[in-house]
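User: Good morning. I'm curious how 2-acetamido-2-deoxy-beta-D-glucopyranose would be positioned relative to this chain. Could you predict the structure with it bound?
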Amino acid sequence: MFPTRLLRSLRYCLVLAVITATGYVIVAHLSRPYIQQRSQHKVSEEQTIAENNVLTSDTLYWPKPPTALVIGNKLWTGLPITEAKETTYSLDNPKTSYHVGDFVNVTIVARDKDGQPKIHGGDYFQVRVQSPDGDSAAAGQVIDHDNGKYTAQFRLFWAGEVKFNIRLVHPSEGCYLLNYMWEVCPLRLTFTSTFMGNNGSSETTECNVFLDEDVDQCDYSDQSSGVSWACVKPKTLPCSSRVDHKVDYDLSHHLNKLCFFLPSEQRHMISSLVTYDEEKGGTFKKTIKGRPGSINVNSTYVPIKVSLRRPPCESGIPTPSAPTTGFWHQDVWTSTVCKNRHFPRREHYFKCLENKELYFMGDSTGRQLYEFLVFSILNTTFSAVDPSITRRAGPHYAVHKASNLTLRFRVHGPPLRTGGINVTHINYLADEISSVRGGPDYVIIITMWAHFTSFHYDIYIQRLRGIRTAILNLLYRKPDTIIVFKTASTRTGVPRLSSDFFSSQMNKIIRKMFANVKITILDVWDLTLSHKNEDIIHPKQVIVRQEVELLLSYICPS
Ligand SMILES: *[C@@H]1O[C@H](CO)[C@@H](O)[C@H](O)[C@H]1NC(C)=O
Ligand SMILES: *[C@@H]1O[C@H](CO)[C@@H](O)[C@H](O)[C@H]1NC(C)=O
Ligand SMILES: *[C@@H]1O[C@H](CO)[C@@H](O)[C@H](O)[C@H]1NC(C)=O
Ligand SMILES: *[C@@H]1O[C@H](CO)[C@@H](O)[C@H](O)[C@H]1NC(C)=O
Ligand SMILES: *[C@@H]1O[C@H](CO)[C@@H](O)[C@H](O)[C@H]1NC(C)=O
Ligand SMILES: *[C@@H]1O[C@H](CO)[C@@H](O)[C@H](O)[C@H]1NC(C)=O
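Assistant: Good morning! Here's the predicted structure, ligand included:
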């Protein structure tokens, strides 16, 4: 079900100034009570199953503080909130010696500002182990016992010192508030488009996933692609005269105030809850104290890579329940999921990619992979014959004649959180997937998450459904097409728009949505979380290179 129930409860409006080329200002009043339940496009049986899987399961379950309530835009937590300074961890069953390959557990005890233990779960932690220089690192997995205690599970991958690093990203009350905001403010960003007339006149209007139904609007939705998109209809120009797409932060800010207005002391509380510092402009994951800070690990006779007994990298293999999908050693990622390969020289890349056509589709975190191949492997520069093609939006195309390799990039379209997108260059991904010829030489790499964290999850789910149907149709037509879905990675940013909490929930949706489809989930979450340069929306080249090599491991498993 699309979130009609939630969205119907909304009733806020805004005033949008529309500046025309002739210089006067039109003021449009928009109110946006709800999105109309759209008549559902006929879906395949399989798609219906996926839909039910996602929506009836506990996929997005997150424990809620039992006494928290929002009344009249004020959060009442009832019980005191979790305080990072008082929260500690300790090692379970300390042993006299540890060996590479061992599993270790750490217990986290959440406490409030008075040092009193918390009695419920829902705090969001990120955990990892690192060598003192940070060159060796691995993520861990957190189990929430919903009683104020958490188990962080780790595996030991290297000999020597292993330091624990446990960080509180959001206290449970912060997660609660983020989930609440997500429900009352399903659209936390808004956009505008400019329309251009033949005689040089222009108008700019607001656009979003949906608008108030009684506003005259241009509908750019496409049911089968899972895209819902509309702009306020310009007063004098036709819907077909839309030329660009851009995010409007000022208008978004205004809108958010209307849908979730907070008095200043509450704003302060939110900032401290979600550990976001407006001035420094980042999310701060607060490191928790504990004992021991580190343990010493002895090597084993059998090297870890041998004892892992990994299968070759092939699509459709399940993710093991191991506490991490791999580990770092000196900027080289070793996957624990499958036997990932490394490609030390350009020739190794060309050998793997000979006669292949790679389609990168989605957001900039996927474009980074495309650009790594183009700039660092093909050794060409960005050049577009058409000046309206920008680096951000593309579409891009690069060829390596000697190895008959073709690379393409296409952006996923609205709700792209950028400006200056020429709408003629936007093609919805499901259509793009359907247009691929397919077969063993065709590889599609989809990355779509970062621009959806400021919207209700259902908007993301709807889009993924369209993509899933297009993939199923392509695989029906050409079963040996290689399809890869790259997950979200860790980042910093304004929590309300970009929290890792939202992205980590979206990764669960991706896994659920493609659970029975023969595609590869290129899981890069632990990879960015554990690297010493973690938490940058656009990871550094050393990280991107390992992401590309992991991708190539699936294209050329041996
Ligand atoms: C770690 O904790 C989990 C969950 O509590 C448990 O299943 C597992 O056996 C523990 N592992 C070790 C090595 O103690
Ligand atoms: C340009 O065209 C629009 C729409 O057709 C019209 O409303 C407007 O008056 C025209 N402007 C000029 C300067 O001719
Ligand atoms: C493990 O290493 C420690 C030093 O860190 C050493 O004292 C101990 O004897 C080693 N144990 C084994 C079983 O190798
Ligand atoms: C180049 O690769 C494509 C598949 O991507 C293939 O169809 C074509 O035959 C190849 N051309 C040559 C000359 O090998
Ligand atoms: C990449 O291209 C530049 C300029 O075309 C050239 O100077 C350089 O040697 C090339 N690098 C490699 C590794 O081929
Ligand atoms: C948008 O792209 C089209 C096709 O490439 C081009 O003709 C047009 O001039 C571009 N519009 C703008 C505003 O750059």
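The chain has a mean pLDDT of 85. The CA atoms of residues 332 and 546 lie 7 Å apart.
Let me know if you'd like a different ligand tried.
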